[in-house]
Amino acid sequence: KEFEEGLARLKLPYSDEATKLFFGDRSRMSLPNIDETTSTNQIRQVYDFYDTNHDGRLTPKEFEEGLARLKLPYSDEATKLFFDKIDANHDGIIDFQEFVLFVIGRERELRALFLEMDTDQSGGIDLDELHHTLERLKIDASEDTVKALMKRVDRDNNGIIDFKEWRDLLLLVPNANIEAAFRYWQETIALDIADEPLPLVSPQRRDVYLQFAAGALSAAASKTGTAPLERLKILYQLDTAKPPSLVQGMRLLYADGGFRGLFRGNWVNILKASPEAAVKFAVFEKVKRAFASTDAELSSSQLFVAGSVGGLTSHLAGYPLDVIKTRLAAAPTGTYNGIFDCVSKIVRNEGLFFPFFRGASTVVSSIPQSGVALSCYEMTKNFMMKSGDSHPSTVALMTAATTSTVAGQLVSYPFHLIKTRLIMHGGHGPKNAHPPEIHVTEGSKTRAYGGFVQALTKTLKHEGIPGLYRGLTPSLIKGIPAHCIAFVSYEYLRRIFHLEAKK
Question: Nearest to residue 160, comparing CAs of 183, 188, 128, 192?
Answer without folding.
Answer: 128
